[in-house]
Amino acid sequence: MQKRQRAREIRRVDLSDVELASSVTARRINRDIILELIRTRQPISRAELARQSGLQRSTVSQIIEQLLAEKWVCEGRTAVSQRGRRPTLIRLNESLVALAVDIHPRQATIAMVDLNGRLMSRSMVALSRDAGASTDLILEAMSRMKAGLGGMSIEGVGVSFPGRVDPHSDQFLFAPNLHWRDFDLKGAIEKRMKLPVHVANAAIACLLAQLTFHHDEGNRDAVLITTSEGVGAAIFANGSIITGHDGMAGEFGHISIDPEGPECACGRRGCWEVFASCRAALRYFRELQPQHRPITFSELLNLAEEGNAHAGTALERQAREIGQGMRLIVAALSPAVVYIAGEVTSAWHRYRPTIEKALRSITIAGTPPAVVPIPDGDLARLRGAAALVFQRRT
């Protein structure tokens, strides 16, 4: 039972709400606290780590020696001291990297990401509905990246996936926009790259990046919404990312809000994503201006900024639909923060008023959740994919 429970949640160390452990079985907790302090406050001395964590200096020194041996951290410059021996500062080991893959229905981005969440290199490949052929292209790009690695150490491969993933096996459960069926992506990558592979839903990866690399301490309840080809969501409740017993928790994009609405890629009608996704905004524009040539969502945003009234109306309708769906999520989960990722954030001035108005309208008591855009969702997905690797390694 314990094993299954761990698979359902992705834990996160919150430095504003930790209890120090003293038993032998809880050493890993103290180790994680020290590692998170280094991540958020690097470079930092052993003495300062002891002061900020509340642990004994001898305990901190033992943990640091372990982290140094495992190559999680390294020693850098010495700090200025008024008297006595100058302390050596500790920082994350930037030569420890992960291969990160962000998959969209038509393309994938492959990147090398270090422990600090920095992208060391990046490349893109076109994808098709042929899962095997598409994976071969991804593997070729990864092999080229690995060949130019130099002295860095690859710890594994993280994959941000546009669908739901079984939390126990990392196999696909549900990916209606990708159209890959019965394909073992994890196994194919592990066989070729000889590295451990971890796969997660794109919204979960994006949320994990926000929680890992942006030092958002004190936040224990949040929801992240991604808007791109579809609409995805990830749930952060009581300090854990929740996937549910079957990996399907947070699949709000495929809740039907109008049984008579357009058909969704999942086979149902009137799902939230057929009204709130970027594809939906393009459909609204085609209905208003049917003679216009086919355009991308980025072009739709540009048309709106150039004063095209139909483009502006299409985006306004999409914003209303995003807000309407989010009302259900907020009423059910009551998060402190709602993060928004995806292309809509590049025109946030158009979306924010409508979405915030929708959330205010359901607030019976207290205050509505803060709505925070994540400007570069694709970058967040890559960093989240890398965080999957680094977190599993601990």
Kindly describe this structure:
The chain has 3 domains: 2-92, Arc Repressor Mutant, subunit A, CATH 1.10.10.10; 96-208 and 380-393, 2-Layer Sandwich (Nucleotidyltransferase, domain 5); 215-375, ATPase, nucleotide binding domain (Nucleotidyltransferase, domain 5), CATH 3.30.420. Helix content is 41%, strand content 22%. With 394 residues, the protein is α/β, with parallel strands linked by helices. The protein is built from 13 helices and 16 strands. β12 (221-227) and β13 (231-237) form a beta hairpin. The model is unreliable at 1-10 (pLDDT under 50). The two termini are 21 Å apart. The strands form 4 sheets. It has a 6-stranded mixed sheet, with helices on both faces. Strands 7-6-5-8-11 form a 5-stranded mixed sheet, with helices on both faces. A 3-stranded antiparallel sheet has the order 2-4-3.
